[in-house]
Design goal:
- The protein is an all-alpha fold.
- The protein has two domains: about 60 residues; about 55 residues.
- It is built from six helices and no strands.
- It is flat and about 80 Å long.
- The N and C termini lie far apart (about 65 Å).
- About 10% of the residues have low confidence.
Length: about 160
Amino acid sequence: MITLRTLPVLLLLAAGFAPLAPLEAQAGPILRRAQERKACQDFAGKLQAASSNPQQAQLVYQQGVLKLVETFGENPCGDIPAPVAAAPAPAPAAAVSPVTAPAPAAAAKPANPQQAQACQEFAGKLQGAQGNPAQAQQIYAMGTQKLSGMFGPNPCPNVPKP
């Protein structure tokens, strides 16, 4: 029971602990940054370990970005580039005619089956929001950001911006 004699003591105790409150409030963002930094270091290590196999590196990157987005709501490791798929060996120079240029449609196809599936799902979500332009633009912006983090720039070139 609080009496008039104990009230001043309680007020002094509360005043003594008041400076600790801002430190606790600041610990949240500091702790989050530390967790993000650790997650990015782990992510970079896994990518480095898979770097000898381009397909495996892409898979590790995609799964890593998904896990980061699931954990933090975003990809805090945006400075870690997506691995580049191994390009097929270039054709001998004599086999390429100067009149023939590579077909641009080949460049518009997604690089792997996971990317193709993700682009199909992305296009489906956009089509579902066709009657609501604001929602379609939001879906496009968020989907493009997420897919760019997973597959690199311009991940779904065949999906038009609403």
